[in-house]
Amino acid sequence: MIDWPNVSASGPQDLGLKPEELQRSKCVLGLIPVVYYSVLLCVGVPVNILTAVALSRLACRTKKALYYYLLAVTGSDILSQLFIIFVGFLLETAVFHRDVPALLLHSVSAAEFAANHASIWSTVPLTVDRYVALCHPLLHRQISYPARARRIIAVVLTLSLASGVPFFWWSDMWRNSNPPTSVDTVLVWTHVTLIYFLPCSIFLVLNSLIIHRLRVRLRQQRSQEDREPKSAPPRRLGKTTAMLLAITSVFAVLWAPRTTVVIYHLYVSSVHQNWRVHLAYDLSNMLAMLNTAVNFFLYCFVSKPFRAAVRDVVLLRGGPLYPGRTLPQRQAHTNASISSLYTGHGHNKRSQRDSSPLSPRRARKPS
């Protein structure tokens, strides 16, 4: 993002560069990435914090595993914005120009990859949960509950954070004039597999099964409607399923350019040889990081309960945090009281009618 010279433009002698400066390449976008990431950070962090508060309220109220999975996705997005955008792109690259100790540089790199993997893999349990809910509803009622969802999230986040450790040895090939080593090749392919190919394969398979299941149900409902004209109208695509498809589709679209550029750079070109690859890399990074700030708008567009929760948070309107724990008991007690009241009232009427003496008209015998 800094205006570093491109050594492919002319020879090193013409540019008068030192040997360590030959590893730096020119960013033709100038200050545009700095402004972009600053705006994205100023908008994305508050929006994700608002999302986390709203989802926390919904999770406490409804006790649904769905909101815990969405909460994990939001928390991982916040980590990505702090480590990747704020520390990586803004502080290291734009402010310090990567003039920091090597140990700190590699440690931050490992933290960036860990947050990146956590942000992406937090969506996988959500996809699995929706698949089980639609294709195996009876099983979903048995295995989907908040305690298990929290355990699954803890395991996924732990593995995602641990997967960032090998990237402590990630080589900054974008500013390294040496050809990539075998370690660089292994790390690059591990990275693109973890952040794109493997999760996208899971999303593709499960979403295809979900769509196939919904089509089968639709055909069954239509055939039932033909036999029974007065049957209920066919069910449409559920909002939760639509939100899942939107989240996974946006991720696949926004991260595809970066994955392509990373592989292209590994085998075909490098930044010090072609500035266009550096330009493509910067633009693809900007698209990929946009994925950390768009989920809030997808939730607002699809989910009415989420919009209501956000409205309550913004207007500082609080409610009972655990109505799911207290209200059903009160409601059951009230229903039981009302039921016993009406039952007792009807029983008293029948008792009075059975025990009351016959009226003169009923007691009169036919002559």
Task: List the SSEs and their pairings.
Layout: H1 12-15, H2 32-62, H3 65-95, H4 102-121, H5 123-135, H6 137-143, H7 146-162, H8 182-227, H9 239-267, H10 275-290, H11 295-302, H12 304-314, H13 323-355, H14 360-363
Task: Describe the protein.
This protein has 367 residues and is mainly α. The protein has 14 helices and no strands. The radius of gyration is 30 Å and the shape is globular. Mean pLDDT is 78; it is low at 1-24 and 320-367.
**Molecular shape:** globular
Task: Tell me the helix content.
Answer: over 70%
Assembly annotation: single chain
The termini sit apart by: 113 Å
Category from helices, strands and their pairing: mainly alpha
Report a brief summary of the structure.
This protein has 14 helices and no strands.
Question: What attributes characterize this protein structure?
Answer:
14 helices; 367 residues; mainly alpha; single chain
